[in-house]
Design goal:
It contains ten helices and 14 strands. The protein has about 350 residues and is of the alpha/beta class. Helices cover about 35% and strands about 25% of the residues. Helix 4 (about 80-90) links the parallel strand 3 (about 70-75) and strand 4 (about 95). It is globular and about 55 Å long. Strands 13-12-11-10-6-9-8-7-14 form a nine-stranded mixed beta sheet. The chain has helices spanning about 15-25, 40-50, 60-65, 80-90, 105-115, 130-140, 160-165, 180-195, 295-310, 315-335; strands at about 5-10, 30-35, 70-75, 95, 120-125, 150-155, 200-205, 220-225, 230-235, 245-250, 255-260, 260-265, 270-275, 340. Pfam families: GFO_IDH_MocA, GFO_IDH_MocA_C3. This is Gfo/Idh/MocA family oxidoreductase.
Length: about 350
């Protein structure tokens, strides 16, 4: 008998899988996990036992299951391309952890693979699903705040050296880079989704004495948006003990400060408003997974609804290319010591 629930497969059982598992458990009346696959049999068995999911013996078992409508890919970036090709060819829609791939070129190839196969590709940028983020997006889109003059993104996070002692962490071969592509990518994506595309950047990036790693653990830069607004970004995982990330938009009618899940708006007429959660983890400190799973739940539900309705999910693979291009520009600017123009849409 065919299930009426939305059937998914899960690939990967590492650290980032926990909020997905909790979200899927909370969606059991709507989504069913047909199987979980991990290359390490012991980890797979332990993960499935903890959350009550069925094990999948192979990638092919999920790809060939007619009741699997989509797969959630939670592997490191260097394992994405082959998986996407296999599942897209099998007609499975794909919801994938950020980043799309390690480089913008590889990310574009993945997006093209899914578009050619006619399957949806969604990317896990869960910060867009915070209540406060959605309120700010509506305030900007409606024009209530007026035009943006200045946008400031700040990610003062902390990771202990033990985090980078795991083989491959913070390397270009596995992760594609450091703080930008692995941590700050969430805040940068959210900023772009609200403030619009960036046209030019100039930045400095490097590794502080606090970490032994190949890629950068600090970046700071100036930005010019296509709208004419100016901006700045600071991102690091060397700011002990770690603070919540924030986006501040200084606009014609007021300033909006989004700090983690809380939005404060200071209107120029003297009013002040606060929206969103008053407390909660951000993942900015020593525990990278110290945050609620609610945002993942809403994102997974949006993806399932989109697939069944025949529409694109809220965060598509093509949309995610914008933040990849911004990250590339910041890194290139630091390496070459010059301003970089971003050719958005290419």
């Amino acid at each position: 008998m065919t299930s009426t629930k939305f059937g998914v497969g899960v690939i990967g059982t590492g650290m980032a899988a926990k909020p997905h598992a909790l979200a899927l458990k909370s969606l059991e009346d709507r989504v069913t996990v047909r199987g979980v696959y991990s290359r390490t049999e012991e980890k797979r068995a332990a993960f499935c036992a903890e959350y009550g999911f069925a094990e999948a013996e192979s990638i092919d078992a999920l790809a060939d299951d007619p009741e699997v409508k989509a797969v959630i890919v939670i592997t490191p970036p260097n394992q994405r391309t082959e998986l996407v090709e296999r599942f897209a060819t099998a007609g499975k829609h794909i919801l994938m952890e950020k980043p799309v791939e390690r480089t913008s070129e590889a990310a574009r190839a993945i997006v093209q693979t899914c578009e050619t196969a006619g399957v949806e590709l969604g990317i896990v940028f869960q910060h867009r699903f915070r209540q406060a983020s959605q309120v700010l997006a509506k305030l900007v889109a409606s024009g209530d705040l007026g035009a943006i003059g200045l946008a400031r993104a700040n990610v003062p996070w902390w990771r202990d050296q033990s985090y980078y002692d795991e083989p491959g962490r913070g390397t270009y071969a596995r992760d594609g880079g450091g703080v930008l592509i692995s941590q700050a990518i969430h805040t940068l994506d959210l900023m772009l989704s609200i403030a619009g595309p960036v046209s030019d950047v100039q930045a400095v990036a490097g590794t502080t004495p606090f970490h032994r790693m190949e890629a950068e653990d600090f970046v700071a830069g100036g930005m010019r948006f296509e709208s004419g607004a100016m901006g700045s970004v600071m991102a690091t995982v060397a700011a002990f003990p770690g603070e919540a990330e924030s986006i501040t938009l200084d606009c014609e009618k007021g300033s909006a400060h989004l700090r983690s899940g809380t939005l404060t708006v200071q209107w120029r007429d003297g009013r002040a408003e606060t929206f969103g959660e008053s407390a909660g983890g951000t993942g900015g400190g020593a525990d990278p997974m110290a945050f609620p799973f609610d945002w993942h739940r809403d994102l997974i539900l949006d993806f399932a609804d989109a697939v069944e309705a025949g529409r694109a999910p809220s965060v598509t693979g093509r949309e995610a290319l914008k933040v990849h291009d911004l990250i590339d520009a910041l890194v290139t600017s630091s390496r070459e010591g010059r301003a970089i123009t971003i050719r958005n849409g290419d």
